[in-house]
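Problem: given the chain below (691 residues), write out its structure.
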Amino acid sequence: MLPEKIKTQIRTIYKEIAAALPHFRSRREQNYMVAEISKTLAGEYDKHRRIIVVEAGTGIGKSLSYILGTIPLALASKKKVCIATATVALQEQLLHKDLPFFLQHSGLDFKFGLVKGRQRYVCLAKLEMLIGSDNGVQMAMWQTKPDQSQVELLQTLLKDYHEGRWNGELDTLKTPIPDHLWQQIACDKHSCHRQNSSHRQCPFHKAREDVDNWDVLIANHSLLFADLELGGGIILPEPEDMFYVIDEAHHLPIVARDFSSAQATARAASDWLEKTIKLSAKIQSQLKTTHIISPVQQLQDQIADTAAQLNQLAQFCDNQAANFANPENRWRFEHGKLPDHIKRQAENLATSSNQALKHYHKMQSVLAEAIKDGELPKHQADSLTADTGFMLQRLENLAKLWKMMAKEDNPKGAPMARWIEQMANGKQQDYLFCASPIEVGFMLETMLWEKAAGVVLCSATLQALNRFDHFAHQVGLSLHDGSRYLALQSPFDFENNATLYLPKMRTEPTDDSYTAELAEQIKALVEDETATLVLFASYWQMEKVVDLLEGKLKQPLLVQGTAPRQQLLEKHKQRCDDGQHSIIFGTGSFSEGLDLPGDYLTNLIITKLPFAVPTSPVEQAHSEYIKLKGGNPFLQLTIPDASRKLIQSCGRLLRKEQDYGRIAILDRRLISKRYGASLLDALPPYRRVIE
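Solution.
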C-alpha cells in the first residue's frame, strides 16, 4: 500500500509546483497519472508485478507526472529512479529544466545526473600514448598515419584536461573532434580498467563515482540495455533497487531487438584473427612468466582453426551466386533454418570461437597479473592493454554471432532471423553473417520485468487501434499478468481547434498517376497558408513532388536533406516571424519529436498512410513466422504499426492548448478500404470534413 505520509507529501508538492508555474492548470488526467504510478510502484495492485504502461496524450504533462509519481516514493523506500529516454532532446529537458525545477519546489533533497556510456569519455592513457612522451608520435598506436594538426589537437586536449579547462567528456568539447580520431582515444570496457593505476583517475571512473551518489539517473535506452545485457547493476544500480521510468517507450521493442542482434564478416574476421595471433606472440615475448605459454599456445590453435573455418565458409558462399542475385545481395534463410552445410559450419564456429574466447581471457589474466606486479613499463603495459581490449571486443562479438547462428530455435517461440549479405572486400567478395531475434518479449521478461523494483512505461503513442495488445506483446507483457494499463486523453479541444480533411481524389497511392495528383493537391492546399508541413512516406516521392512543383509556388520549399534539420526549422520559424509563408517537406523522421507550436504550424499535410514495407530481413522473418502460425501479418503487424505512426504524424499539429489548424490526409484508402475505418477511429476526435 502507498503510505498515507507519501500521499500527503505528493499532494503538498503538487500544490507548491502549481503555485510556482505561471498559467498552471490542474488536470484530472495528470493527477490520476501521478496517483496510479505511485500506487503501482508501492505494490497496491500487485506486489509481484509493479509495472504500469501509460499512454499520456500531448498536454497532460507526463514528465512532471512520472517525476512526482516516482521520486517521493523512491526516496522514502531507499530506491533509486532511472529515467531512460530515446532522444537527446528529452534528456536535456529533464537535466536542465524539469528536474532542477522539481528539486527547487518539492522540498525534497535528492541528487541527479546524466549517465553516459564509456564512449563519451576520453581515455587519458590512450591520449598520452598517441601523443608520445617525447612529443613524437607513437606511430604503432595510430590506426592511420596522423598529420601534425591531429597531433597538435590531441596535445591541446591533454593540456586542457590537466589545466582544468576540459572535463574529459566528448559533449563538453569546445571544438568538435572528428569521429575517427575520437574513436582512438575514447574509453572502452576492455582496456580501461580501474585496477590499472594509470586508469584510476580517468574521467569515466570519476564520473562513475558521481553516479553512486545520485538518487535519480537519466540514461538513454541503449545504455539501459548495455547494463541489462551485463546482468544489471554493472553500469547502473541493481535492478531490484531501482524504479525504471522508460519514456518514449514505443521505441523499446526496436532498441531491444537491435541490441540483441549480432553480425560478423567471414574473410575480414579471418584477417583480424591473424593479427590476434601476432598480438598473443608479442605478449608472450614481452612477459617473463612461463604461465603465459600454455594459454597463448591454446589460443593460437583455436584462432587458426576458427580463421580456417571462416575462409572455408566464404569459399562456399562464393559458389552460391544465385542465392545472392537480388537487389539487396542478400541470402535470407526462411524460418531461420540454415542449409545443412552452413549449419554444421556454424556449430563448429560456435565451439571454436567460444574456446578461443576462453583462452583469450586466460591470456589476459596472466597479462593483468604481470602488469599489477610491475613487470612491464607503463607505456608498454598501456599499449598491450589497449590492443588486447580492442581485440577482445571483436572476439566477443564473433562468438556471440556464431552462438546465435548455431542455436537450436525453441519450437514454442519465434525462430531467430538469419541471413548473409554479400559485400565487396577489395578484389575478393566478403560475406556478412547476421542473426537477430524476431521477438524480444521473453528477453525483456528475464532481463527487466522480473528483476526491477518497479517499471513505468510511457509515451504519447503506445496504443494501436485504441488497444494496448500490440505493444504489450512486443515488450513481453500481457493484459492479464498483473501489469497496469492506463490511456489518458489529451486535454486539447480537438473538435474545435483542428479539422481533419480528406479531399476528393481521382487516385490512390497504388496508382501510377498518384504522385502527379499529389503535387496538384499540395499546390492547392498550401495556397494562402502561412505555415505548412508536408509529410511523405518516402524520399523518392518527396523529390518527385519537389520537381513537379518547381517554379509553381509563391514561396521556396524547405526540403529535408538539403540542410540539417535544426537549420531548416530555424529558417521556417524566421520566415513565420517575418510574416512570410513557409513550407517544410519531410519524411517519416519529421513525424516524431518535431515541435512547431502556435503559428509555426497551422497546415499539416500527410501524403500517404505510413505503412512500413517489410524490407528488413527481421521484418520479413516476422511476417513469415506469423503466416506459419496461421496469422495475417498485414492485420497483426502492418495495420497496428501504421495506426500508431498516423497518430504520431497528426500529433505534429496541436502542441499547445491554444494551437489550431487543419490536417489533410491525401490517402483515400481511409475511406475505400475496410481497415480505413479502424485507423480513422483511433485518431483524436478532430472535426471531420470528408469529401
